[in-house]
């Protein structure tokens, strides 16, 4: 019968104490690497914030054609519903462009507001009907349980 105190010499040439001694430098090295990575991310965020702040404070750069990344993202995600003349912008907005490009390879169609509201109303009536069915089923189960499982 093998003893539980025996240590495999191939895996741990110095015994269990050797493994503990070797884990400490390994932990120190990994902790140092993690601290460096975290600090580099903080430096990067501070640098980007400083650049953004300088671009907002510098009036010459404010009127230039170049926009900061955050401004470009904000402009791209704006969803105007009407242009200055009052016409609908469906295809000009980002969601409209995405929908038109996806409709070339996916079976999706653009719905008018009326069709969308009608579809929502249909779904709501279906959900309401299902809720009524569930309530009836709960009452039936409660009655069955209150009679002690006897059918009447």
Shape: flat
Q: How many β strands by DSSP?
A: 0
Helix tally equals 5
Output the radius of gyration: 33 Å
Instruction: Name the average pLDDT.
Output: 76
Query: What percent strand?
Result: under 5%
Unreliable spans are none
First CA to last CA: what distance? 68 Å
* H/E element sequence: HHHHH
- Number of structural units classed as domains: 3
Overview of this protein structure:
The chain is an all-alpha fold and 152 residues long. It is built from 5 helices and no strands. The protein has helices at 16-57, 59-62, 69-77, 94-102, 113-146. The longest helix is centred in the first third of the chain and has 42 residues, at 16-57. The protein starts with 15 loop residues before the first helix and ends in a 6-residue tail after the last helix.
